Amino acid sequence: MALGGGVVFEDFFPVMVERLGAEGFMKELCNGFRLLMDGAKGMITFESLKRNSALLGLQDMSDDDLKCMLREGDLDGDGSLNEMEFCTLMFRLSPALMQTSKDLMEEALAFEF
After folding, report:
1. Is residue 55 part of a domain?
2. Confidence (pLDDT) at 50
3. Does pTM surpass 0.85?
4. How far apart are CA 46 and CA 75, in angstroms?
């Protein structure tokens, strides 16, 4: 999957879920959020994302691309990402996880009726 200016995102999330289990994977996502967040604000801001972009291998992304990433995940429109928005964005960036989630939801709904 390509992000913004041609940065390629390799979807390792399904393998991580398989190895860590769902709970372990969610813990790792939360650790990733804390790594990227502004400690004083408890949110991922443009400044904290820019400062920590090298940790993600995104140091060559333009400011516009970083802002676009924030906008993509910013569900409440406050210009930053809280932990839930970050986790939601990470799931949306993983087509395989989205398909698995859809399959599980359909399976669960089938048992309801």
Report:
1. yes
2. 92
3. no
4. 15
HEC string for the chain: CEECCCEECCCCHHHHHHHHHHHHHHHHHHHHHHHHCECCCCEECHHHHHHHHHHHCCCCCCHHHHHHHHHHHCCCCCCCECHHHHHHHHHHCCHHHHHHHHHHHHHHHHHHC
Please state the domain count of the chain.
1
Residue 4 domain flag: no
| 83 found inside a domain | yes
Answer whether residue 73 is part of any domain. Answer: yes
Instruction: Give the Cα separation of 38 and 51 in Å (integer).
Output: 10
Q: What domain range is 59 assigned to?
A: 20-111
pLDDT digits (tens, 9 = 90+) for 19-43: 877 788 788 888 889 999 999 999 9
Q: Please state the φ and ψ torsions of residue 32, each to the nearest 5 degrees.
A: -60, -40
> Do you know the residue count of the chain?
113
Question: What is the CATH number for 51?
Answer: 1.10.238.10
Cβ neighbours of residue 84 under 8 Å, at least 6 residues apart?
Answer: none
